[in-house]
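Quarterly update from the structural biology core.
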Amino acid sequence: MSFEVLVVCTANICRSPAGETVLRSRLADRGFDDTGVRVSSAGVAARAGAAACDLSTALVAGLLGPDSVALATPADAHSARLLTAQLVASSDLILTADRRHRNRVAELAPAARKRTFTLLQAARTAEWICADGSVLAVADTRAGGGQVELDPGDHRHGVPALPPDPLNRLAWLVEEMDAARGVAPNPEGIEGVWDADDVPDPHVVGFSIHGDAIERMSGAAQTLADALWAVVTTPVRSGAAIP
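Predicted structure, tokenized:
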């Protein structure tokens, strides 16, 4: 049994390979090596077999450092692949570089919309779910049979108990991320066609933003890895009331 994470961009040569590599590294740093979490990538308009962007690959290798360089796929070793409905169907969590890719995933497989987010959107939503006294606290209290005292209008009334199995917990998190779309705080600021939840495409906007794109993905990958780890390692509490 595994939990499949798919990172998606346009050509699968720059943003999604970088996101795949950085997220895999952050998850490994967190201890996910043997938990069945697997990360791969694809592109909505990929040319099968194309190599990764040299600059993006070099920036990722430099970011991860000498101890993690082995996790960075060399540009000439990467083989781009086209996003398909089959790939979408086999993925438990789909992370896109920007909103247009998220829409494309929904076009390929409408049922996958509930488990598809931009990478930055997924990171901020998962972080909000795991915040002190938030959704995760209610879920693990209910898992231990504890009582949860909530105001009538509190959004956490429908939160189910946290499952005992780690991979089922990750599935729980994805469901809660979907439920939080209209509840979790939204980021501010839109720059042209690039929303605050998007990672701009350096091959469209300009090569000078490669560094910024990698930094955005790196920060989001770290936040998301921290949230995933919090969910799978949270000890079940009991008897405590959640304010």
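The chain has a mean pLDDT of 89.
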